[in-house]
Amino acid sequence: MKAEIITIGDEILIGQIVDTNSQWIGTELNKIGVSVYQISSIQDDKQHILNALKEAQERVDIVILTGGLGPTKDDITKKTIAEFFHDDEIVEYPEVLEHIKGLFRKINHPFKEVQRFQAQLPSKATLLMNHFGTAPGMWFYENNTVFVSLPGVPYEMKGLITNQVLPRIQQQFKLPFIIHKTIMTYGQGESTIAERIEDFENNLPIYIKLAYLPSFGKVRLRLSAKGENKEILEKELNEKVAAIYQLIPEIITGLDDDRSLEKRVGELLKKITKRLEPQKV
User: Fold this and answer.
1) 50, 52, 90, 147 from 81: Cα distances, Å
2) Whose CB among 4, 119, 222, 260 lies 3.0–4.6 Å from 211's, allowing a Cys bridge?
3) How many CA atoms lie within 13 A of 187 on its CB side?
4) Is 35 in a helix, a strand, or coil?
5) How is the beta sheet containing 218-227 ordered, strand by strand?
6) What pLDDT does residue 255 have?
7) What is the rounded CA–CA span in Å between residue 244 and residue 87?
8) What confidence tier does 20 reach under pLDDT thresholds 50, 70, 90?
9) Residue 13: HSE in the Cβ half-sphere, 13 Å Cα cutoff
10) Apex CA 6: angle with CA 147 and CA 152, to 5°?
11) What are phi and psi of 115, to 5 degrees?
12) How many DSSP H helices and E strands does the chain contain?
């Protein structure tokens, strides 16, 4: 099961904001067994969006878009999606309109007619009610591909992904398990480590992959396994981790830990200091 994430907005392309949405969505999809095949950022441009949707449909099973769902004229995603789905008509969803008006009442702010635009969606959309904001999400299914359009505001997007999108994906598709184990190493470069574990890497089964994630002074070795039986995958990954420990024991500093080496040393020093403190009688 493969997915593509498309972020829409000129503000991303000019570096005005950092695309943290894609990173978070990718992590969450991976947890339920969906592999992210590609991540793209595109302009608020109709033809660009249409091209991206068409190309993604040819590559993956799930397409997730974020951004472009605001009430202003530069937010063109809904109209463009409607055109992509064979010139689907835009209709007003009364439940969305009432939800938006309710949000404005809660903050004692007058409802503006421009906000009505956010209650207008393509008629083929399955509504994903946004309980954290005014722009609803949309779910489409056509030609064996799921298309999901979500607001770009991170906390709104996360609420929709967690509460509605992921459960729907799990209900609609039979998903494999994807499991990762990450070994932390320090003191040797990527090429040196690759030479030392070359035979090990060459003999990995096709459903287990090894990735090298280098940074200054250290390299993380990530083993990833995909399959239908979680227990078997866990057992095999643990065996592969043990094999790497045998091959390069002197440079391994830990397992499955995203904390920096400096932070972990600091935590150890705090524990040692606490043990050395005089005990109260």
Assistant:
1) 8, 11, 10, 10
2) 222
3) 6
4) strand
5) 208-215, 218-227, 177-186, 252-255
6) 85
7) 55
8) very high
9) 12
10) 90
11) -70, -20
12) 11, 12
Going 10 to 11 to 17 to 20, the CA torsion angle's sign is: negative
pTM, 2 dp = 0.80
Tens-place pLDDT, residues 155-182: 999 999 999 999 999 999 999 999 999 9
Contact present, 234 and 224 (Cβ < 8 Å): no
| Residue 271: predicted pLDDT | 76
What the block records as the tokens of 13 is 């392309």
For residue 270, the model assigns a pLDDT of 80
Tokens of residue 162, six digits: 């967690």
**Among the four given CATH numbers 3.20.20.150, 3.40.980.10, 1.20.120.450, 3.30.300.30, the one describing domain 2-172:** 3.40.980.10
Closest CA to 252 of 206, 197, 205, 207: 197
Please tell us whether the domain made up of 178-270 is placed in CATH 3.10.290.10: no
Distance CA 185, CA 216 (A): 11
Query: Domain ranges in the chain?
Result: 2-172, 178-270
pLDDT value at residue 279: 63
| Cβ contacts of 91 within 8 Å, gap of 6 or more | 120, 121, 122, 123
CA 43 to chain centre: 20
CA distance 122 to 248: 57
